[in-house]
Design goal:
alpha+beta, five-stranded antiparallel β-sheet, globular
């Protein structure tokens, strides 16, 4: 499950135009913290890797392999003789949530090109407080409905604004990617 805050910095801003959660493949979703343009570049790379793997091997790309591929790209900046490499690191941390033959999987990637697997993880400006709350409240045998409430309550603790259906996105990969509609988000908010 992925749960993110969409920071609405102006009353003129259309909330639906802020994308902080994206589908990578039917079994992988990504949440981002940092520069959206860099995130879109990495997500496009991941989508291409997933499609190429599926086309070549007729099976979905593993979530760890997807994370490894993204981190390989992140490590590519500034290398001598490569005109296609970036001149600066990517300024984004990603959470990759997916579903493989053993069940749900979560990886965090960072600008240094490191990826680590987690049971539950928070990234972004309020990540320290959120991570502490996750460590105290997360249980491996939680149901999806319990995980929805936990994710949203942890996000609510670290958000400066009030949680609304317009400023929060929730997505699950169980086993297929699904981005919640505003009504589905409101249903989770109502259960808080």
């Amino acid at each position: 499950m992925l749960c993110v805050e969409k920071r609405i910095t102006s009353p003129l801003l259309e909330p639906k135009s802020i994308e902080k959660v994206m589908e990578v493949d039917e079994h992988i979703g990504a949440a981002m913290s940092g520069l959206n343009a860099d995130a879109r570049t990495l997500i496009e790379h991941a989508r291409t890797e997933c499609q190429n793997h599926r086309f070549t091997y007729n099976e979905p790309l593993g979530i760890e392999s997807c994370a490894q591929s993204l981190c390989d790209v992140a490590l590519n900046f500034g290398e001598d003789g490569q005109s296609s490499g970036m001149s600066r690191p990517f300024g984004v941390a990603l959470l990759l949530a997916g579903w493989d033959d053993k069940g749900p999987v979560l990886y965090q990637t960072d600008p240094s090109g490191t990826f680590v697997r987690y049971e539950a993880k928070a990234v972004g400006s309020g990540s320290e407080g959120a991570q502490n709350a996750l460590q105290e409240q997360y249980k491996p045998d939680m149901s999806l409905k319990e995980a929805e409430v936990l994710a949203l309550s942890v996000l609510k603790q670290v958000m400066e604004e009030k949680v609304t259906r317009a400023n929060v996105d929730i997505a699950t990969v169980a086993p297929k990617y699904h981005l919640y509609s505003e009504d589905e988000v409101q249903a989770v908010i109502d259960r808080l």
